[in-house]
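Protocol step 4 of 6: structure prediction from sequence.
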Amino acid sequence: MKIHILAICGKMTAPLAVALKKQGHLVTGSDQEKIYPPFSTILTKAKIPINQPYQTPDLYIVGSGFNHQNKLKNEFEQIKQSKIPYISATEYIAKNLIKSNSILVAGSYGKSSISAMIAFLLKNTKYNPSYLFASQPLNKLPSLLFTKSNWSICEADESINGLDTQAKFLYYPVKYLILTSAQWEHKESYPTATANFNAFKKLVQSIPKDGLLIYNNIDSSTIPLIKFAKCKTIPYTTQNINHPTLFGPAFENNFAAAKTLCDYLKISTNKIQKFKGLKNRLEIVADKKKILFIDDFAQSAPRINASILAIQNKYPNRSIKIILEPHAGFLQYKKSISELAEPLKSINNIFLTKISYTKNLDKNNRISFSYYKAIFGDKISYLPTSIDLINTVTSSLKSADILVRFSSGGLEGQKAFTKIINYFK
């Protein structure tokens, strides 16, 4: 089959494109004019042409990010006018990857890590599941895999994007659900906390009687949802584990979730010692001049707090400085910034990169640097250009410091972080 993927450079669509090509399909794609690693690298390596003339496809798959670019929105209008069928990437995954024994991992944090751990532990067992998680593993493990098994694992997000009209996780059939939290993180998708809660409520209610709900007992946002489950429920908290490279309460909490499911399925978790984790998840990327450089995905207050606590516990006598790249949509709101006050109170220096805004965001509700300054005072610096960021950060670092980059992506920020690391030869 000839398949063209619109908005191919996404966390779901790029690995989907590679997996479809491995199945024997002729795959092409389109995205914004400039595409960046890691997706450009992944697709180029797979020899999947992007933004090039292509044969009329048998099917269009529409990625969630298509409506953020005028070029892609215009292409979608042309797709609608053609007689060729199209389907959202979410629905394609729901119909083709999700199996009768469906394991979903949902919540406002930990989804990628837990999904990847379970995929790693169940791979090459009798379950041999299809799976999808939206991050790059440090093991040689694809982030999306189709198998012939009737088991599947899927990171299940609550956001509403692209052609989706409801939470992404509500498109996916579920039998086994791991729920890490139900905090109101995606304010761009849900106008109120109640709307966010109701989405999670529907998810829990959709678990069949012979299914299973495994929930994070130390996150209070999960507790009100338990009463809506008509299946067996099992709590998890943390599981102490001595791992060669992974550390911190977030890792131990995520491992507890994976172990609880594996214990239920009677699968050993001993192999977890060989699991290297995910790129950009408390990833120690360099240690130069006795300065430790850590790359982390955390953007929300709970995630940042967990990461900082993990670093402080492992390196109790070292000064922590951070680069905060406010990419996430919820960081554009004033309320979100006040929530960061507690997690960042012990940080010596905060280097804030360029603040961007979603189109049509009400100016009365959106954040500005003055709000950051009011909360963090002189320890925060606004550095919207790469050169200012590089110069300021490199001049501030000294032996025994730890520099953490909190970012959900972006090539410019990654390049600047790399240049800061390479400054210390």
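Step 5 (inspection) to follow. Residues 283-423 form a domain with the Protein-Tyrosine Phosphatase; Chain A fold (CATH 3.90.190.20).
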